[in-house]
Specification:
Layout (H helix, E strand, L loop, with lengths): L8 H67 L4 H23 L9 H21 L7 H30 L4 H9 L3 H4 L2 H13 L14 H4 L14 H12 L5 E6 L5 E8 L2 E8 L5 E6 L10 H14 L5 E9 L2 E10 L2 E13 L5 E5 L1 H6 L12 H5 L7 E11 L5 E10 L5 E7 L5 E10 L2 E4 L1
Parallel strand pairs: 7-9
Antiparallel strand pairs: 1-2, 2-3, 3-4, 4-8, 5-6, 6-7, 7-8, 9-10, 10-11, 11-12, 12-13
Helix pairs in contact: 1-2, 1-4, 2-3, 4-7
Length: about 450
């Protein structure tokens, strides 16, 4: 019989130590591999971040440079045709620059002036394009404005080029860029190199020229005064509160501050049926123009047509005469009804009032008359220079005119235009509104009517 030779106790301990050392070395080797791999990944990440930021700054600087060049060319355009081409180039460059600016790491206030500048330039160019496309040449004032805007674009382009140099020279570090991409607000401004460069760029940014044009960034809009309040005296807060109580029928109304601006107002709150009601009353004249209840409507049991009748009654009870429903929309158990003022046979869309009615209770939960307060007045409406027949001839032959009326419509610059309004239908029974300028005969605007069982929207 053979005997088994078992290792001694000392031998087993030696083997265990060998195994332990082997496993430890293997683990260290694996860990070292992980560490090295993580190091490589981290270095690759840093390189990718720097490259991404460098690419973003290059894209932004290039876009602003293109905007500068397009503005420069527009300022020396000799014909309306060339001005139109160059102005479209400005608009396209502004849109690209706005997108590029959004990809840069920055806090909300870093590019406040620059962002506003780009938006204004794009809108101004679009407004001038509409003018030059009709064969009208740019005025001397408009040409000067384009030159000033080009100078501002050149400053912005130079500032971005300086930032690119700081990245390439290592003066703007990865740490600052990476932290900036994760922070917002005041903290981001305090990052030394980048924050100081941004503050300098904002300080050096030239003052915008005064731009008076038909667009939302026109300088004249900030100075507009409420037409409906003209000649009315300023009221006290107590008088305003009484007006709010009378308008809403609520008691226990409390003060909630005030608002300045071109529609200075007293603010109030109240409670009704478990909802908080916000009320705004103009300081001049004490006119209630905004009432909103935080009512969460349940599934409506009241028909939209009955909600519309309630809205019409609400207007009449508060003295708003000659108002006509234009469109309505049902959403989340609430019907929102838009009313426009009528003067004679002309519908005046700027004088707008919106009323919301909850379809579960049948109560008015929203009243907004800011458009009415800002624009309503007795207008001197001229006779159309272009009659209905001549205006209809401008409507596309692919559309069938279903109805016609005269209308005053607002422009994006808060101006007003008298138009022929044609409700039209195409072969697929899709509906459009075509507005033809009653003075020039040009197509002023085209809207698409989106109709459903929940009402009508215009696009």
């Amino acid at each position: 019989m053979q005997h088994l030779h078992l290792p001694s106790h000392g031998t087993r301990r030696a083997q265990a130590r060998v195994l332990l050392v082997s496993f430890t070395l293997a683990a260290l080797a694996v860990m070292g591999g992980f560490i090295y791999t993580a190091h490589l990944a981290n270095e690759n990440y840093k390189r990718a971040v720097v490259n991404n930021y460098r690419s973003a700054f290059n894209y932004a600087a290039g876009s602003i440079g293109e905007l500068d060049a397009a503005l420069d060319k527009s300022a020396v355009s000799g014909t309306s045709g060339m001005a139109t081409v160059n102005m479209l180039e400005v608009y396209g460059a502004a849109m690209s620059a706005k997108q590029a600016l959004g990809e840069l790491p920055h806090s909300d206030r870093d590019f406040e002036k620059a962002s506003g500048f780009i938006s204004t330039v794009g809108d101004y160019a679009l407004a001038l394009t509409k003018k030059t496309a009709r064969g009208t040449a740019l005025t001397d004032e408009e040409t000067k404005n384009l030159r000033k805007l080009a100078d501002s674009a050149a400053v912005l382009s130079g500032n971005l080029t300086e930032l690119i140099s700081e990245i390439n020279d290592g003066r703007l570090t990865l740490k600052e860029l990476d932290e900036l991409s994760k922070k917002a607000g005041d903290e981001a401004e305090n990052l030394s190199a980048y924050g100081e460069t941004m503050k300098t760029a904002e300080r050096e940014f030239p003052e915008m020229p005064t731009l008076i044009y038909d667009g939302p960034f026109s300088t004249h809009i900030a100075g507009m005064k409420p037409q409906f309040l003209e000649g009315k005296t300023e009221v006290t807060r107590d008088d305003a509160k009484k007006a709010a109580e009378k308008f809403t029928g609520l008691s226990g109304i409390t003060d909630d501050g005030e608002r300045g601006g071109n529609l200075a107002s007293y603010l109030f709150t109240a409670s009704a049926d478990g909802a908080t009601v916000s009320i705004e009353v103009t300081k001049q004249g004490g006119v209630v123009y905004n009432v909103y209840a935080s009512h969460m409507a349940r599934e409506g049991t009241i028909a939209a047509k009955d909600g519309i009748k309630t809205a019409e009654k609400h207007l009449a009870e508060h003295g708003f005469a000659d108002m006509k429903m234009s469109y309505y929309q049902v959403s989340n158990g609430v019907v929102t009804v838009n009313f426009a003022h009528t003067q004679g046979d002309v519908i005046v869309y700027p004088d707008l009032i919106k009323i919301e009615v909850a379809l579960d209770s049948g109560k008015v939960i929203g009243f907004e008359a800011q458009g009415y307060v800002m624009h309503h007045r007795d207008r001197e409406i001229p006779e159309p220079k272009i009659d209905e027949t001549a205006a209809q001839a401008k409507v596309s032959k692919s559309l069938t005119v279903k109805s016609h009326k005269l209308a005053i419509i607002p422009t994006s610059g808060k101006n007003e235009v008298l138009c022929h309004e044609f409700i039209c239908e195409n072969a697929e029974q899709k509906h459009y509104i075509v507005y033809v300028n009653a003075e020039t005969g040009d197509e002023q605007q085209i809207l698409v009517l989106i109709e459903s069982e929940n009402g009508t929207l215009t696009l």
